[in-house]
Structure prediction request, 493 residues.
Amino acid sequence: MSGASILALRGRHGCDTDHMDHVCQLATTVFVQTLSIHRISARYLPLLNAAALVHDIGVPSDQAHHDERGRDIVMAEGLRGYSDVERAVIACIIRFHRGIVAPADEPIWMALPHEMQSVALGLAAIMRIADGLDYCHTQQARIVRKADEPIPCILVRENYNDVGIDIKRAKQKADLWEQLYGQSVRIQPTSKRLQTWVPPVRPRMSVERSAGKVLRDYHAQAYANTLGLGAFDGIDPRHDFRVAIRRLRRALQLYRDLWDIDAIDTLRGKLGELSNMIGAVRDAELAVEWLRDAEKGAPKSARTEMRRIRHDIERTRRTALGKLVQQIRSGELRSVMEITADWVETCDNFAETSVSDDCRIVDEIPRELAKHAKRIRAFDGTIREDDSLRLHVLRKQCRRMRYVVEAWYAALGPGRRKLAIQLKNVQDALGDIHDADVRSEHWTKEGGRKGNVWLAERCRYDRNSAWDRFETEWPKLVKLLGKKSIGKVAQHE
Prediction:
C-alpha cells in the first residue's frame, strides 16, 4: 500500500509509466473477475498492484532481460511498507511476467513459504494476461466486467485498431493460468459497454454460499482501490473505495443472521470509521469541484470572494488528506483491511463447506426486497420539499435497497436493471438536495459578502433543480416498488 515508495522506485529508473499504470488496472479487473477460480485472498491484491506498477523498471537498463533486472532492482532497493516475504512475492511476479515460467529455477520463489509460492504463481498468471492485453502499449484495452462461471470469459472492447494483436498476445500469455487451474481463458472482443461488476450469485445457491461470494467480491473491490487513497490528484480511488466499503457494510448487514451478530456489528463499526475517514477528504474535494464550476457563472463582483472561499476549503482538504496519509503510513488502514480479510475468509470458508440447502437465496430474495420496498413506499404522500431531514432518510433507504439489488443482481428476474437505475436516479436527486442544503446553510451563516450571497442563491437554484428531478423520478420508483413489480424482480427467469 506504499504508493510513495513505488513512485520513488519508478522515478529512479525511468520507464513507460503509462503502460504499467494501465496493466495495473487490467490486472486488478482480471483478479476481481476471476475470484471464484483462483481463490486468492484479496489481501494479496496490493502485491499484484505493486508488481504491475513496476514490472518494466528493468527495461531502461536491460531490455532483453528486463524481467530479471526488475526482480533484482526490487530485491536490492526494496519497497517501503512491504515485508521481506511480500517484497519477494512482488519480485517473483515481475520475474514471471514474461517468457517461460520455471519456478523451480527461481531461488527467490523456492525460498518462499509454501502457501506464498502458490500466491506468487497465481498473481503472476493474472499479471501475464494483463500485460498481454497492452502488448501494443496503446493503453486502449478495456475489459467489460461480466460474471461468468466456471470458465472465465474476459471481454475486451473492440473499439480500437490493435485489439486483435493485444488479445492474441494475452491468449499466449494465459499459459501459466491454464497450467495452474487446468482450464483455458476465453479472451474475445465485444461491442458491449463497460458494465458494473456484480457478484456471481445464482438463484438456487444457498444463502451461506452466496454470502461468501458477495463478501469476497466486495472486499476485493475495496482492496482494488487502496493504492491511490493517499494521492493528491485524482479522487476516483477514494470515491470507489468508499462505495466498496459501503457495499461491504451493507452485505454484512444483509447476512447478519448467519454469523455472530456482535462480531458483524464490530466489523461494520470499524469499516464505518474507515469510510468516514475517507469521507472527510471526499466531501472537501466535492465542495472544491462545485465551487470551481460555480465560479464560471458567477458575476465578476463575486468571484474574488468565491476564490477566497475555495482556497479555504482547499486548505481543509489538504489537512484532511494529510491526516488520511498519516493513518495510511501508520498502518491503521492496513490493519482494518487485514482484520476484514480474516473475517471474510472465515465466512467464505464456512460458506464453501456448508452443505445446508434449507435456505436458498431464491427463498430470501422476495422477503428482503418486499421489506425494503415497503419502507420506501411508506414515504409516498408524506414528503415535503422543506423537510430536509426526511428527504435525507429516504435517500439512505433508497441506497440500502439499491445495494441489496446490486448484491443479488445476477439472481434477480425481469425488471432488475430498471429498478436499480430508478433507485439510483432518486438517490442522486436526493443527494443533490442534501448537498445544496448543507452548502446553503454554510453560505447563509457566512454573512452578506457578495460571494456568499451569490453562492447562497446558486445553492437554492441547485436545490430547486434537484427537487424537480426528484418529483419526476419519485413516482416512477413508487410504481416499480408495487407488489406486482417487485414480485417479477424477485422471480428469476
